[in-house]
Amino acid sequence: MAHVLTSPRFSAPFGTLALVRIQAGLAAWRQRRALVRLDDNARRDLGLTEADVARETSRPVWDVPQRWLM
Fold it and tell me: Under a CB-based contact definition with an 8 Å cutoff, are residues 20 and 69 in contact?
């Protein structure tokens, strides 16, 4: 998985940045829970294996793509 290094943005107030992180974490949690509920045919349609789903759903809630935080 590729990671992009970017410099943090300091233009927004701290409370706004915290809210963005919380919203991103909740969105990631919802999406990962939805992955677990997919049946085998839906996973195959998406090109995902059981191992892919297990790896994604075991990630911590704060582990979200950097682009979600901008």
Answer: yes
Q: Residue 43 has which token pair? A: 């996973």
Residues 6 or more apart whose CB falls under 8 angstroms from that of 33 comprise 57
**Number of residues that make up the chain:** 70
Model pLDDT for residues 19-29, shown as the tens digit of each residue: 888 899 999 99
Give the residue among 30, 22, 32, 36 at the shortest CA–CA distance from 68: 22
- What DSSP element (H or E) covers 56? helix 50-57
Rounded-to-10 torsion of CA 30, 68, 24, 15: -170
5-15 pLDDT, tens digit each: 454 555 556 56
| Cβ within 8 Å of residue 11, ≥6 positions away | none
